[in-house]
């Protein structure tokens, strides 16, 4: 049976993927308080319909930073998406292109941005940056990104160090991945993934690596980084952002802000957009939810820069709730991956169609013609 909603896609992905990879995507950090709070915060938002205001059709188009999107949706950057399906990042790019929405490529993707561009030539590709300790290597990476036709850069600001996810260590899915008997048995019990993903890479490009690491620092995903040069820069600060603003010629977005003070500083220093985000509940377990802080941030800076939001999105109605709280558009990460896991590019297509269908039903129930009309209907 065709999966109908987030839970159907997630259940199919859980059967398809090895436990280590599934939990890497699905779970949170420490006690997973932030992960549960995200769902609770979205479920608590109520939307008041306006009766007898029907429209023949809904218009989902949204303009952000001078670009028109077919939906107020952006594919969030997700590390190792290329392990979910063979050439998964390329498939996501093509699916996003067909859906008329941007796709944000992670610094830690399996496939390099140049190859994603080659496979999805007309996609609106954004690039997410984890700053490396070696700034020269970071600048060289950004030169590659720009040369591939990317104009929107997303700096992740909420991950100075690797978060505390104990289940990854238990599953042998820490960075680097650790081959263990338990992990090997897990993979053997998922032959579809083994043959369809890992062996497909081995037959073509070899053992998967991080596609953006410089050649001299590239190792297989099961190997330890060869140098501290490409480690996360835990000393990242606003001076680094200023330097990045001077270097990057296109749109510059900061992802992972949760306070009005940080949003105001981002605006002052030249950001084009910010993403109000808890990193999907995967980083700081005591962080406030996106829904709680988004309205104040949007009120403070929404007239001066583009405010985006993410974390915890499972349905089209969740997208509308974040838009109603002040976001111009919403990023989704896990959802596209579950589609990718269950059906490759076709599965990702189905996810985007599902989100649009759910948005359409919700907007019709509310009597809305455009997503931007929802704010007065939200009970905060």
UniProtKB/TrEMBL annotation:
Q: List, alphabetically, the InterPro entries matched.
A: Aldolase_TIM, Alpha-hydoxy_acid_DH_FMN, FMN-dep_DH, FMN_HAD
Q: Which UniProt keywords apply?
A: Flavoprotein, FMN, Oxidoreductase
Where do the FMN hydroxy acid dehydrogenase domain residues begin and end? 1-380
Q: Which CDD domains match?
A: alpha_hydroxyacid_oxid_FMN
**Source organism superkingdom:** Bacteria
PROSITE patterns reported for this sequence:
FMN_HYDROXY_ACID_DH_2
Cofactor section: FMN
Hey, which family's this protein in?
A: Belongs to the FMN-dependent alpha-hydroxy acid dehydrogenase family.
| Database matches in PANTHER family | 2-HYDROXYACID OXIDASE 1 (PTHR10578:SF107), S -2-HYDROXY-ACID OXIDASE-RELATED (PTHR10578)
What name does UniProt use for this protein? Alpha-hydroxy-acid oxidizing protein
